[in-house]
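Subject: complex prediction, re-run

Hi both,

The earlier run crashed halfway through, so I resubmitted it with identical inputs.
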Amino acid sequence: MATRTQIVMLGTGTPGPDPDRSGPATAIVVNDAPYLVDFGPGVVRRASAAYRNGVIAFGRGVTNLRTVFLTHLHADHTLGYPDLILTPWIMGRRAPLTVFGPTGLKAMTNHVLKAWTRDIANRVKGAERLPTIAQRVRVTEIASGPVFRDANVAVTAFRVRHGGMRDAFGFKFVTPDRTIVISGDTAPSERIVEYSRGCDVLIHEAYSEHTFAQVSAKWRAYRRAYHTSSTQLARIASRAKPKLLVVYHRGNPGGAPFANPEHVLLEEIRANYAGKVISAHDLDVL
Ligand SMILES: [Zn+2]
Ligand SMILES: [Zn+2]
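This time it finished cleanly. Structure:
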């Protein structure tokens, strides 16, 4: 039977608490198995909404979300972690949650489990009689290179440049019918060009030059070190030539919250890039 890989944009936001955009989280669904990249705030609710919209691969109660990759340890990408560990467990997930991410992820996992000690003990020993959870969260700290393979996907991690944040990765997913690259948070990176050359879909962060011009010197320096501008992304995409460029995590650091029109960003990209580009919204299925 022909496979069809779906990309489900569960969270297209940034640290800004935009009610329309959850924190970064992207699911790749292959043969009804979901693979998650990043778990920003709102991830479990958004996956549940996608299930209600017909993406039944997540399972009722999001219990099928159990293979997960993390780009880096920034809060906007990880604030959904306790939710991801605990909510599907409470709702009936019995298979282990397997998480691949940067150095420091094991410590974060142990801290989350410790922070919810009372809840976990109560649910295990109380009337719910849930199975223990600690050994059911399996964490692998990764380096660049192949990190995961099964019958549906081969996943490769590669290092990107995210200012002073150590161990920031992008991921390349190769499925039976699609090749998908996710940038994570990054300043312009040659590795993005290298890994996404000719891919089907490149999902990349960007901020607009329009908003860049409005922020202070401190925030302009921050953006240059940590993130990628629309024109820089246009140059990257012109070289990599993905069949589809998807912009997410449209940052506006140092600027007014949410004042960041997406049509301006898209116009800036289109001025320098002839390929197909869209700006993603939460719950888009691509
Ligand atoms: Zn971020
Ligand atoms: Zn970041």
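Residues 14, 24, 74, 76-77, 185, 249 surround zinc ion (ligand 1) (CB under 6 Å).

- K.
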